[in-house]
Design goal:
Structural class: alpha+beta
Number of helices: 10
Largest sheet: 6 strands, antiparallel
Shape: elongated
Number of domains: 2
Radius of gyration: 21 Å
Helix content: 25-40%
Strand order of the largest sheet: 3-8-4-5-6-7
Order of helices and strands: HHHHHHHHEEHHEEEEEE
CATH class of the largest domain: Mainly Alpha
CATH topology of the largest domain: Lysozyme
């Protein structure tokens, strides 16, 4: 739905276009054991009962890899099938190749069987956490040395899928469609496996994680403004930041309009609010706000084409908004009084 040269960017419904959901924020500290008081718990009845104690135990390995992340990763890897085999030879719940398994295997119950088995759920889950946390530590080393940049969890998941070498080569999430979809899918699924955040308040899509509207709105605006000057990329932008797009954006690392909004709201909510990658859908979520009551951090959807909310941005105050406008342009600040936007039908939505 993109017209070249025009600021139209409805989005593609990429990766996980669906209802927005809430997730407890991950504790900090790469490669450090997670404190029990801060570890996000699992949502009731979402994980097979026999696996839940092992996932909770595995989540103590390091702070980066929480129980909901492990559950979402298993869902993506094997759909909870402990006997899964891939065409490439990956095995079990966590889909380890035999060579990787040989290096990282953990025997969760040595009294029950002599050797670790990738088809044993407990062994697979503990090995998954061990490998994830080793990757998280390597990612932290690369981030600290400024050889890569990005969200540590997203980079860890990318390393699990594509290898640390690919993450280092591309200085972030590699431009592989499979890897980008893998990371996006797990980050989005994590929400459905997390216990409801305490004190979050509000309904799904109406809470910024317990922050006041103004504080949450300022965080949304700041998250988007952090990428000012980043290229526009059709279909680009994920929960972890800029990505390569599709079609005319395939060779460009950046954001389209709904990708920028999706990232900023997710980042400001500490991962609790996951929006679809579509301006039309974003324009119907959250709380509706009258235009004359707009606040910093509110999302503004424009009908640049009749009957279609085909562009979206984030209000930053003083009549200005930050947006990813069109192919050939960059994330930038524009004014609502600009003749191109003035007078167009708009919808204002609030997520905090």
């Amino acid at each position: 739905m993109m017209n070249k040269g025009l600021a139209v960017c409805a989005g593609l419904g990429l990766a996980v276009a669906g209802p927005l959901v809430l997730i407890a924020a991950s504790p900090g500290g790469i490669g450090q054991p997670a404190a029990a008081a801060t570890r996000p718990g699992l949502a009731p009845h979402r994980v097979p009962a026999a696996y839940q104690p092992w996932i909770e135990a595995a989540a103590r390995t390091c702070a980066t890899v929480t129980a909901p992340v492990l559950a979402a990763q298993i869902d993506s890897e094997s759909a909870w099938n402990p006997m899964a085999r891939s065409a490439a030879g990956a095995e079990g719940l966590a889909q380890f190749l035999p060579s990787t398994w040989a290096t990282w295997k953990v025997n969760a119950q040595p009294l029950d069987h002599a050797a670790a088995d990738p088809f044993d759920p407990a062994d697979a889950i503990l090995t998954q956490a061990r490998y994830d946390c080793a990757l998280a530590a390597e990612v932290r080393r690369l981030v600290d040395s400024r050889r890569v940049s990005g969200d540590p969890l997203a980079l860890t998941l990318a390393a699990y899928n594509a290898g640390v070498g690919a993450v280092e080569t591309y200085r972030g999430i590699p431009p592989y469609q499979e890897t980008q979809q893998y990371v996006e899918g797990i980050l989005a699924k994590t929400a459905s496996y997390a216990a409801p955040a305490r004190g979050g308040g509000g309904q799904s899509g109406e809470s910024g994680g317990g922050q006041s509207g103004s504080a949450f709105g300022a965080a949304v605006a700041a998250a988007a403004l952090r990428y000012r000057g980043t290229p526009y990329s059709w279909g680009g932008g994920g929960l972890a930041g800029p990505t390569y797009g599709v079609g005319e954006g395939a060779g460009i690392m950046g954001f389209d309009c709904s990708g920028l909004v999706r990232y900023a709201v997710y980042e400001a909510s500490a991962g609790r609010v996951v929006l679809p990658h579509s301006s039309e859908e974003q324009a119907t979520l959250g709380r509706p706000v009258e235009p004359d009551r707009i606040q910093v951090g509110d999302v503004i959807a424009f009908q640049l084409s009749p009957g279609d909310y085909d562009h979206i941005g984030i209000y930053i105050g003083q009549g200005e908004f930050v947006q990813a406008p069109k192919t050939g342009d960059v994330v930038k600040v524009s004014n609502l009084s600009d003749p191109y936007y003035a007078g167009k039908p708009i919808a204002v939505r609030r997520f905090g």
